[in-house]
Amino acid sequence: MSRTITIDPVTRIEGHSKITIQLDDAGRVKDAHFHVTQFRGFERIVQGRPVHEMPSIMARICGICPVSHLVASAKAVDDILAVDPPPAGADIRRLINLGQIVQSNALSFFHLSSPDLLFGFDADPAVRHIVGVAQENPQLANDGITLRKWGQQIIERLGGKRIHPGGVIPGGVADPLTEEVRDEILAGVPDALTKVQRTLDWYKSKMMGWEEEASHFGDFRSAFMALVDEKGNVDHYGGRLRFVDADGSMLEDFEPRDFNDYIGEAVEPWSYLKSTYYKPMGYPDGIYRVGPLARMNVAEACGTPLADEELKRFRWRVGRVASSSFHQHYARLIDLLHCVEKIEQILSKPEIMSKHVTATAGINRNEGIGCSEAPRGTLMHHYKVDDNGLMEWANLVIATGHNNMAMNRSVAQVARAYVKGDKIEEPMLNRVEAVIRSYDPCLSCSTHSLGDMALDIQLLSPDGEVVDRVKR
Amino acid sequence: MSPSDQGAALGGGSGAPSRHVLIIGFGNTLRRDDGAGAAAARLLARDPRIAGVDVEVLERYQLLPEMALDIAEVSLVIFVDADVRGLPGSIELHDIDPATAARDDADARGEPGASSHHVGGGELVALAAALTNRAPRAVAIGIGVADLELGEGLSPAVEAALPRVADIVARLVADHRAQR
After folding, report:
1. Which residues, other chains included, contact B67 with Cβ-Cβ below 8 Å and sequence gap of 6+?
2. Is the pLDDT of residue A66 over 60?
3. Can you spell out the DSSP letters for A428-447?
4. DSSP-derived secondary structure for A121-152
5. Which of A117, A304, A342, B53 is buried most, with the most CB atoms less than 10 Å from its CB?
6. In this structure, are residues A239 and A311 in contact, taking their beta carbons and an 8 Å threshold?
7. Which residues of A fall within a CB distance of 8 Å from B126?
8. Facing residue for A145 by CB, picked from B68, B113, B118
9. How far apart are CA A145 and CA B68, in angstroms?
10. What's the confidence (pLDDT) of residue A435?
11. What is the ipTM of this complex?
C-alpha cells in the first residue's frame, strides 16, 4: 500500500507551507510537493486604484522584501509613464535595492541556514537556532546580525524607514542623496566587507563536510535565469534577462518587457504558488531556477573585484554552472559581497549627488512591465491601466514561483535519499526543510499568503491515505 | 540573582554600558489589543518622569534579532507586550533570567528552540549575552488583552491599564537611576 508523509509547517522560511511526500507500494518515494497554503490576492486589491499608488501599495506584499516590490512596481509605472528616471534617481533606487539584498541575504544565511551549517543537519533542534549559533560561534552570529542591521540602515536612510519604506516613486526617487547619508553608508563599507569575507572564509573551510548534502539537495540539470548588464555581468536592478542551460550555454537574452514570450505560468490544485516555466520547453519540462545561484551561473562575472575573485574560486570548486541548490548558500555570500562593493562604487560616483532624481510624466502607455532582481531571484510586475491611469489588471511573477518546480524536484530528491520507511524522523525532516530553505522562499511574496510560517509534512499512500503527518 | 548582579558583565566581560535604559513596547496595532505594547511605548515616550538622555523608548511591530546589539549596550531593558494569558487590563511584571530566558521563550511557543519569526525578549537577552558577554537586567511587562480581532484601537480595559503601566515603568526607571 502506498503512503504519504506530511510535514506541516516548514520552519525557518518566510511564510506558511507544507510538504507532502508520496510513497509507492514498495515504500519508495514516488513524488513530493511543496504546498503554499495561504493566499492574499494583491492583484485584485489594486484594481481601480491610481497607478501612481502602486509602489507604496505593492511594497506591503512583504515585510521581508518590501523594497524589491517597491522597485519592480516603480519600474512598471515608469514604463506606463514612458520615462526613464534621471541617472542619480536610478542609482539611488539601485542602492536601496542593494541594501535590501544585503539585509535579506544576511537573514537567510545567518539567521535561517547557519544553524544547520554550524551544528549539522542531525543536530538537536533545541540548539539549532540563532541563539545557539551565538553561543557556539559569537563572531559568526555577530557578523550576521550586524550585516543585516547595516542593510536595514541603508534602506532606512534612503527610504525613510526599514520596513515598507517610501522614497522610491514613479519616475525616480523622492529626494536626492545628502552628503551626510552618503558618508554614513560609505563609512560602514569596510566593516561590511570584512564581515562578508570572514564568513566566506568560514564557509569555504567547512564546505567539504557538506558534500553529501550537496549531492542530494536539489542537484539536477536545469536552466537558470537572471538579469545581466550590457557586459553580461550581474545586474540587480536593470539590464536584460538571460536564460542559460545546465551547461552554461545561452538559451535566450531578451528585454524584460518581452518576458511573456519566454515565461509561462501554470497552476496546480495543491498550491496557491504558481509554477513558472520556460515556454520553449513547455510545462513541466521547462524547469529553471532563479536567485543568487542563478545570478552566479548566468552572469559572466559580478563586475566588482573582490566578488569576481570569489566567483572564480566558486567556479573552480563547484563548476562553471553549479547544479546543486545547496550551493545557493555559497552563491548568496558572493552575491552579498558583490552588493557591498557595488554600494561603494555607486556612492563614490560624483553624479550620485545630482539634484535631478525624478522624471515626471502622465499616462503614456496602457501597459507597463517592471523587472528587478529580488534577493531570492527575478521579480516582475506587469500592469494594465485605463487612459486615466486607473489599474485594470496586474500580474506579479515572483522569484519563489520561478523556483517552484525546482523546489518540488529538490524535495523529492532529498526524500529519496533520506526517507526510510513510513515514519518522519528528525534528520529527514530537517533535511527536507533545509533544501527548501536553500532557496530562501518568501511565501508572502509568492502567493501573497498571510501570517507567519508553518510547516506540514504528509506521508501519503498511493490511494491518498495519510500514513504519517508532522505539523508544527 | 539580584537585579544588580544580572546587570553585571557575564563571564568576565568588560565595558560598562554607555546608555542605561531601553524600553521596547511592541505589537501589531492593526490587531486591536495586540498593539498594547506599542501604545504603551507611545505613552512612555511622552512621560516626563521617564524622559532623559539615559533612556530610549522604542515602539516596534515585533522584536528582531538585531535588537540584541542595542540591548547589550544598556543596563536595564524593559519589554512591554500584550499578554494573552492575563485577564483584560491586568499587568504582570517579571524579571527575565538570562540563563533560562531562551528556553523559556521557546517553551512558551511550544517550539524546540529559538525562531527567526518569533524571537522573544528572553531570547534577545540570551542572544545579547552570547554575542557580547553582557546582559542587562531585563524586565517583561505583560498587559492582559480582551480583543485581538482585526482593527485599530484598544479595548477599554487595556486603554485604562496604560497609565498604570507608565507608573510601573517610571518607578523602575527611577529605582534604576537611584542605584547608579
Report:
1. B24, B60, B124
2. yes
3. HHHHHHHHHHHT--BHHHHH
4. TTS-TTT-SHHHHHHH-HHHHHHHHHHHHHHH
5. A342
6. no
7. 131, 134
8. B68
9. 9
10. 86
11. 0.73
